[in-house]
Design a protein that fits this description.
By secondary structure, this protein is mostly helical. The protein is built from five helices and no strands. Bound molecules: protoporphyrin IX containing FE.
């Protein structure tokens, strides 16, 4: 058992709390950006939403994302979950991180161009978010046995490759 086992409940509580803040923040940012599409002519609304998205993203949602990922990484070693469902979860989390990055890029683009984001893209990505969340929750809560999933051989066993640089030999 890992030496970190005693702090697992605390780590999990922080992990789930930061995840809740991060996911709620992404949903709120999508909602605010979508309001910005309509606010193009209303100068003060546009500016208010622009400031709220900017500060919300930099001071709340991004720190929550970093802490959620940090506590998640600590949990991997504390719980020793080197399992296939965990790697599946990490692939879906990469999708969530990409959405996070796209929102940040869009907030900057809105500030620079003075135009709201394109509604169809916003809608599409907004729908992707709950699907990714549902996928992650399914994997982490059901912990399905994915051992029977077809995998390329090089992913399923060591291939005996060497690193492209010298490793010190203690
Ligand atoms: C890089 C990002 C993440 C990492 C490394 C990570 C890692 C982990 C690990 C190792 C656990 C403990 C699993 C266990 O005890 O069996 C866990 C629990 C959990 N994670 Fe994450 N996670 C990440 C992101 C997320 C995201 C984005 C969500 C939700 C959208 C999420 C939701 C949960 C939930 C609900 C639990 C509690 C599950 C339970 O206690 O059975 N995690 N996470």
């Amino acid at each position: 058992m890992s030496a970190l086992a005693n702090i697992v409940p605390h780590l999990k509580a922080f992990h789930v709390g930061f995840i809740a803040l991060w996911m709620a923040g992404l949903l709120a940012l999508f909602a605010m950006l979508s309001r910005q599409c309509d606010a193009v002519d209303a100068e003060s609304d546009f500016r208010r939403i622009r400031e709220a998205t900017h500060y919300g993203y930099t001071w709340v949602v991004t720190p929550a994302a970093g802490l959620a990922v940090g506590t998640g990484l600590a949990l991997i070693f504390a719980r020793e979950v080197f399992t296939i469902w965990m790697f599946g979860k990490l692939i879906l989390v990469a999708g969530l991180v990409s959405l996070h990055g796209w929102i940040g890029h869009t907030i900057v683009a809105v500030a620079e161009t003075g135009r709201g984001p394109k509604r169809p893209i916003l809608l599409l990505l907004n729908l992707t978010l709950p699907m990714l969340i549902a996928g992650v929750l399914f994997l982490v809560l059901a912990k399905p046995n994915l051992a029977g999933w077809p995998m390329p051989g090089w992913l399923a066993q060591p291939v005996g490759g060497t690193l492209p640089f010298d490793v010190p030999n203690p």
